[in-house]
Design brief:
GO terms for molecular function: ABC-type quaternary ammonium compound transporting activity; ATP binding; ATP hydrolysis activity. InterPro entries: AAA+_ATPase, ABC_transporter-like_ATP-bd, ABC_transporter-like_CS, P-loop_NTPase. Its EC number is 7.6.2.9. Keywords: ATP-binding, Nucleotide-binding, Transport. This protein has helices spanning 41-48, 71-76, 93-103, 108-121, 126-129, 138-150, 168-185, 196-202, 221-226, 231-237, 241-247, 299-308, 329-346, and strands at 2-10, 16-25, 30-35, 56-61, 64-65, 78-82, 156-160, 188-192, 205-210, 214-219, 265-269, 275-280, 288-289, 313-317, 323-328. It has 347 residues and is an alpha/beta fold. It has two domains: 2-240, 3-Layer(aba) Sandwich (Rossmann fold); 265-346, CBS-domain. The strands form four sheets. Strands 6-7-8-3-9-10 form a six-stranded mixed sheet, with helices on both faces. It has a four-stranded antiparallel sheet with strand order 2-1-4-5, covered by helices on one side. Strands 11-12-13 form a three-stranded antiparallel sheet, with no helix packed on it. β11 (265-269) and β12 form a beta hairpin. The radius of gyration is 24 Å and the shape is globular. The protein starts with a strand and ends with a helix. Bound molecules: adenosine-5'-triphosphate. Residues 11, 13, 15, 17, 35, 37-43, 194 line the site of adenosine-5'-triphosphate (ATP).
Length: 347
């Protein structure tokens, strides 16, 4: 756990970057810090590994006060990923990743073997390891940045807008990859972003700051979306707050029935009972597209399909893509409403 108690940071020029911050960041969870520009997110993050020293208050990592540890040693024991990856331009990708293990006194061979393993973990080929950072795309460089931060297997990972400089498609891929990695690695991650959608997607808890370094609310995303503490938080979450909450709920509990037969729509299946398309009764040759969904797809995706498809129906499939049933727009709507009520009650 990372624990801030009454932490204050005032820079010599008089700027208060962080104001009386008390915050718990749970072990093995992703805590996302969000808020408008200049609200103190980066300063908060950098105080954890002592790149910035607090003016007052205490910060503990795993129960130990950070100021009582050697700063260089502390920094080596905490992974740090920044925007643009911050790679050494004149070292190969493999040597970039091996940097920290080497600093920690691992032999060159062991450090490079570990680096090669990590390349694969973050989804890069061995060939990419031989290249120099400028020979990789922005998204690939960010993957190397993540691999380098993981090289010493630190329990804590600090990530400062790590995916801020890549296009939205690559950004989504990197987010997926981080979620996959986190399932395996269970690191305590502190993640800074401007992007509330990214925060909702990645965060187990989201801390929202406002200018002057004030923490306004820290809560799991569903709680934040269901019960924002004030208008500032509600505005920050945006007008589509209700839909964002549905992106965190799955389709699993929505009832499903058999595919309709002999009605206005027929679901055409292949020989293994995988949905191909819908056929309208009056023009059976027309092929109306179907987007089958699985139990772990979101309620938002289900709502989208139920309004986008003229059938008003959502075809449900198992992990192999085989039809399990069909849900109606009404069922999905009702569950969407119920998800909101439950989130408000639970919060
Ligand atoms: N070294 C410094 N000296 C003086 N003021 C600073 C210093 N570093 C940051 N600040 C100020 O402290 C405040 C908080 O900065 P910080 O970088 O933590 O904000 P942020 O929320 O991370 O912003 P952004 O989203 O734009 O990166 C800002 O007003 C900034 O100008």
């Amino acid at each position: 756990m990372i624990q801030f108690d009454a932490v204050h940071k005032r820079f010599p020029n008089g700027t208060t970057a962080v104001h009386d911050l008390s915050l718990r960041m749970p072990e093995g969870g992703v805590t996302v810090l969000v808020g408008s520009s200049g609200c103190g997110k980066t300063t908060t993050l950098r105080m954890i590994n002592r790149m910035v020293e607090p003016t007052s208050g205490t910060i503990r990592v795993g129960g130990k006060d950070v100021t009582e540890q050697d700063a260089a040693e502390l920094r080596r024991s905490i992974g740090y990923v920044i925007q643009q990856a911050g790679l050494f331009p004149h070292r190969t990708v493999l040597d970039n990743i091996a940097t920290v293990p080497l600093l920690l006194g691992h032999g060159r061979r062991r450090a490079r073997a570990r680096a090669a393993e990590l390349l694969e973990t973050v989804g890069l080929t061995a060939e990419a390891g031989k290249r120099y950072p400028h020979q990789l795309s922005g998204g690939q460089q960010q993957r190397v940045g993540v691999a380098r931060a993981l090289a010493a297997d630190p329990p804590v990972l600090l990530m400062d807008e790590p995916f801020g400089a890549v296009d939205p498609v690559v950004r989504t891929q990197l987010q997926d990859e981080l979620l996959r990695l986190q399932k395996e690695l269970n690191k305590t991650i502190v993640f800074v972003t401007h992007d509330i959608d990214e925060a909702v997607r990645l965060g187990d808890r989201i801390a929202i700051f406002r200018t002057g370094g004030h923490l306004v609310q820290c809560a799991p995303p569903t709680e934040l979306l269901a019960r924002p503490a004030d208008d500032f938080v509600a505005d920050f979450l945006g007008a589509e707050r209700g839909l964002k909450l549905l992106s965190l709920k799955t389709l699993a509990e929505v009832p499903q029935g058999p595919a309709p037969e002999g009605g206005a729509w027929t679901l055409v299946l292949d020989s293994r009972r995988r949905p191909l398309h819908w056929a309208p009764k009056n023009t059976p040759d027309a092929e109306i597209p179907v987007r089958p969904l699985k139990d772990d797809d979101s309620l938002l995706a289900a709502l989208d399909e139920s309004v986008a498809s003229p059938t008003g129906l959502v075809a449900r499939v198992d992990a192999d893509g085989v039809l399990t049933g069909v849900s109606s727009r009404d069922d999905i709507h009702e569950h969407a409403g119920r998800a909101h009520t439950e989130a408000r009650v639970a919060a």
